[in-house]
Amino acid sequence: MSKKPIYLSSIHQGGAESKYIQAALNSNSLSTGGINVSEFEKAVEHYIGQGNFVAALSSGTAAIHLGLILLGVKKGDEVICQSLTFSASANPIVYQGATPIFVDSESETWNICPITLEEAIMDRILKGSKPKAIIAVHLYGMPYKVDAVHAVATKYGIPILEDSAEALGSTYKNTACGTFGDIGVYSFNGNKIITTSGGGALVVKDQKVKQKAIFYATQAKEPTLYYQHNEIGYNYRMPNICAAVGQAQMEVLDEHIKLRKANHLFYELLFKDINCVGVHKALNEDSTSNYWLTTIIIDPKNSEGFNSENLRMALQDDSVEARPIWKPMHLQPIFEKSPYYGNNAAEELFNNGLCLPSSSNLTDEDKDRIRKVVLKYFKKTVEK
Ligand SMILES: *Cc1c(COP(=O)(O)O)cnc(C)c1O
């Protein structure tokens, strides 16, 4: 008999979803926008703190696309993007007819390297094109080096689009990730820390910018009785019924973070005596990760023949889903021609790293199964 699959990151309902959905049904609010959307936006605004405005959209990808539009990215522009990320960070650059310039990671947070970032900016300026924006990503929920990265951006006067799709609830110096960039982005896709079943949000600093985002997200209709369009619009607003799910999920966000952190602790203990494995963790007390996914790296110089792909297959044999670290964008066929700056740090993470099951509803039995496979793979005794 095949075992119950254990997924990387699965849906975890909070319990109040049906209550909010029923309220939306009762008021017949089944369109985009609506009361649940504004209540959901308020909940996220309250959660991330003062001075930030949230526009709920149909996806994180839509949020990145609108973010680039709000930053004025146009055809022919160059946009710097962290190479080690999910493709949705980079695709909207191409939607705008702009060119992605990929920048490598540093090995501490696995996110955009501030030194390489500056080298890339200087070289692009030398080549005659100053980048229009920088997309920095808190990959797996781990904050990037906010101060260092933003210092470079400020020095050259380039805005940052902060892809916080995986990092709702992570903080840097006690401030919410998603609120550092000129524009921030969250995703509420089904695999993220909370879900609206599909959705995203833009975080902006100004009520007027929020209104502008909503304007573009609802077909750029001018305020006339007849349909008047002076700009190209999009259908990117969050459906109200999705926001209802989001309201319920916001109530359990902190609990989900606690559970993901407990998963991380479980893996730290599990790999404590396995010398070739490093569990990726926050650099110092400036950063807290929501530990959306716990990731590990197997040191190739000290691996004693173990490797991430064989560990992944051993887990798969037990119906446990693990996944390689996201494949860097500069190695993707679609971005083959895009310039890349770096020293293959991201490539090394891709070759030697693994994402482990990290759902907030991972059970003790699930952990026990994972533990047994891991200890067996590394030839450690499985004590009871
Ligand atoms: C999930 C994700 C996105 C895209 O969000 P969707 O809501 O799935 O469109 C963008 N960037 C990163 C880093 C992501 O993980």
From TrEMBL:
<keyword id="KW-0808">Transferase</keyword>
<feature type="modified residue" description="N6-(pyridoxal phosphate)lysine">
    <location>
        <position position="192"/>
    </location>
</feature>
<dbReference type="Pfam" id="PF01041">
    <property type="entry name" value="DegT_DnrJ_EryC1"/>
</dbReference>
<keyword id="KW-0663">Pyridoxal phosphate</keyword>
<dbReference type="GO" id="GO:0008483">
    <property type="term" value="F:transaminase activity"/>
</dbReference>
<feature type="active site" description="Proton acceptor">
    <location>
        <position position="192"/>
    </location>
</feature>
<comment type="similarity">
    <text>Belongs to the DegT/DnrJ/EryC1 family.</text>
</comment>
<dbReference type="InterPro" id="IPR000653">
    <property type="entry name" value="DegT/StrS_aminotransferase"/>
</dbReference>
<dbReference type="InterPro" id="IPR015422">
    <property type="entry name" value="PyrdxlP-dep_Trfase_small"/>
</dbReference>
<dbReference type="InterPro" id="IPR015421">
    <property type="entry name" value="PyrdxlP-dep_Trfase_major"/>
</dbReference>
<dbReference type="GO" id="GO:0030170">
    <property type="term" value="F:pyridoxal phosphate binding"/>
</dbReference>
<dbReference type="InterPro" id="IPR015424">
    <property type="entry name" value="PyrdxlP-dep_Trfase"/>
</dbReference>
<keyword id="KW-0032">Aminotransferase</keyword>
<protein>
    <submittedName>
        <fullName>Pyridoxal phosphate-dependent aminotransferase</fullName>
    </submittedName>
</protein>
<dbReference type="GO" id="GO:0000271">
    <property type="term" value="P:polysaccharide biosynthetic process"/>
</dbReference>
